[in-house]
Design brief:
This protein has helices at 3-27, 33-47, 57-78, 100-118, 122-132, 138-145, 149-167. It has 171 residues and is mainly alpha-helical.
Length: 171
């Protein structure tokens, strides 16, 4: 990437970051996403191959921001809502099974859970695996997957809600 393009984008970021964040704040339900979306605007600006074709960089910034708001609203409609009860607890309350039926039932549940987890999108699977198999904290997972801690929390909530829905009939 030419230095001129990079300098232009850095200058746009410095001058318009606050306005873009305010733009997202006014249009989003989840205010925590605003900072992530501001960064996404600039990442998309950096990916533009023919930056000379952009006649109005400020206008382009807000056009990209408008598209991101639309994408976010579509994504939010598709995702289940996450409540506090859907978020994973960091404690282990599972009691050891006592009898043969309970051991057999546990094996059936584990097999079903593996099937249900395989239905998740790859990023959700990765987050669940890193959290529950490796015991990583949200920040560590976010760093390794190059996503925000907020997205780690969202992915875990989505995975938990999915598992609860799919596992409900197996009780």
């Amino acid at each position: 990437m030419p230095d001129v393009k990079k300098m232009l984008i850095e200058r746009l970021f410095v001058h318009h970051r606050t306005a873009l964040q305010a733009f997202f704040y006014r249009r989003l339900k989840a205010k925590d996403d605003a900072a992530d979306l501001v960064q996404e605007v600039y990442l998309r600006m950096l990916r533009v191959k023919d930056s000379d074709a952009i006649k109005n960089p400020e206008g382009y910034l807000f056009a990209v921001a408008g598209n991101l708001v639309y994408e976010q609203s579509v994504l939010n409609r598709r995702q289940p809502s996450i409540s506090e009860n859907d978020l994973p607890a960091d404690r282990d309350d599972a009691a050891a099974p006592a009898g043969f039926e309970e051991v057999f039932d546990l094996a059936a549940r584990v097999a079903r859970l593996r099937e249900v987890l395989a239905q998740l999108p790859p990023k959700c699977q990765a987050v669940v695996h890193m959290k529950y198999q490796h015991g990583l904290k949200y920040e560590e997972i976010a760093r390794q997957l190059d996503i925000s801690s907020h997205m780690v929390q969202k992915y875990l909530g989505i995975a938990l809600a999915h598992c609860r829905r799919r596992m409900a009939g197996l009780k």
